[in-house]
Amino acid sequence: MSQNTLNLSQKKAILLLEDGSRFEGIAIGKIGTVGAEICFNTGMTGYQEIYTDPSYYGQIVVNTTSHIGNYGVEDSEQESDAPKITGLVVNTFSEDFSRNTGHGSLQDYLEKNGIVGVSELDTRLLVRQIRDKGAMNAIISSEDLSEDELQRRLAEVPSMDGLELSSFVSTKEPYFVGEENSPYKVAVLDLGVKTSILTHLASRGAYLKVFNAKTSFEEMKEWNPDGYFLSNGPGDPSAMDYAVKTAKEIIAEDKPLFGICLGHQIISLACGISTFKMHNGHRGLNHPVKNLISGKSEVTSQNHGFAVNREDVENSDLVELTHVNLNDHTCAGIQVKGKKSFSVQYHPESSPGPHDSRYLFDQFIDLIKS
């Protein structure tokens, strides 16, 4: 355990929200000051998967489950090479862990990766405030800064509305996943892809080439893939004309195309469907979705602050609604009419769970086979 960890109980931290709300707690992670949009995740487990999901880039995450850090961290539970969150807010933080397979404490992990956080806050109260007033910018500081300085730094945090972030988390150079002699080749447009998505595709016989978010369709096509995948990722999809153009060209080619979360929004925009910023987003492991084609319901993992306009989908001649979120009836999935293209607004790979929606990977491979 680091010396910083031993002294954490003596270090105060401040959380300041855009609406003027101020919370005091105890510092965790790195000592410092960070600002970003604040959001909450309702998952009862899987905190390391949350922190390393590139879709959270540029956000402060509030964990609603009360105990964080108690099972440490493990290398196999990374969804990317390092945490992508900007900051962390928790209720009870454990500096010790009790899992035999754990590789270290969460405190050392956060400190090593430069993540600033605050604990010992009433996260129930905080989440109720975000639910009522909506996602907003916030700042965490464990430094000795004046109130005026905190307010100044908070005012400098950009709005998530209109913010393009995929280019910050996408791979710089193409790389391969899977076995080269696999029966299918899938080109992945990395908008902020999670490792477990690539694992699921590779386990179903796909050899993957992962491309930078701004790669042109022509460059991807040169690899001669059997299908295309548009990944999850952070930021506002309406600020990503480059990806929308690529999606339009893939759909016109009529090769199998599968999109998840941000990829779903990009495919929708390519078909003339608008997107919007949600009041507080969907983030957690317990969102019910109905598959309108099969009639079955699924418990899903979700992480998005933007959504596809359901009214536009229902009035479109190009796409049809396939999945609906049963909590608020927003669009949770579409397919392009007459094309081999479909997408969903949730995470079928859902690591650590639930696993109700993993059939969607099989559906994509079946499209490639057909």
TrEMBL record:
Pathway: Pyrimidine metabolism; UMP biosynthesis via de novo pathway; (S)-dihydroorotate from bicarbonate: step 1/3; Amino-acid biosynthesis; L-arginine biosynthesis; carbamoyl phosphate from bicarbonate: step 1/1. L-glutamine binds at S55, G233, G235, L262, Q265, N303, G305, F306. Signal peptide: none annotated. Its EC number is 6.3.5.5. GO terms for biological process: 'de novo' pyrimidine nucleobase biosynthetic process; 'de novo' UMP biosynthetic process; glutamine metabolic process; L-arginine biosynthetic process. Residues 11-141 form the Carbamoyl-phosphate synthase small subunit N-terminal domain. Keywords: Amino-acid biosynthesis, Arginine biosynthesis, ATP-binding, Glutamine amidotransferase, Ligase, Nucleotide-binding, Pyrimidine biosynthesis. It catalyses: hydrogencarbonate + L-glutamine + 2 ATP + H2O = carbamoyl phosphate + L-glutamate + 2 ADP + phosphate + 2 H(+); L-glutamine + H2O = L-glutamate + NH4(+). It holds the Pfam family CPSase_sm_chain. The active site is at C261 (nucleophile), H347, E349. Transmembrane segments: none annotated. SUPFAM superfamilies: Carbamoyl phosphate synthetase, small subunit N-terminal domain, Class I glutamine amidotransferase-like. Coiled coil: none annotated. GO terms for molecular function: ATP binding; carbamoyl-phosphate synthase (glutamine-hydrolyzing) activity; glutaminase activity. Residues 1-184 are annotated as: CPSase. Belongs to the CarA family. Small subunit of the glutamine-dependent carbamoyl phosphate synthetase (CPSase). CPSase catalyzes the formation of carbamoyl phosphate from the ammonia moiety of glutamine, carbonate, and phosphate donated by ATP, constituting the first step of 2 biosynthetic pathways, one leading to arginine and/or urea and the other to pyrimidine nucleotides. The small subunit (glutamine amidotransferase) binds and cleaves glutamine to supply the large subunit with the substrate ammonia. Composed of two chains; the small (or glutamine) chain promotes the hydrolysis of glutamine to ammonia, which is used by the large (or ammonia) chain to synthesize carbamoyl phosphate. Tetramer of heterodimers (alpha,beta)4. NCBIfam families: CPSaseIIsmall, PRK12838.1. This is Carbamoyl phosphate synthase small chain. It comes from Roseivirga misakiensis. The gene is carA.
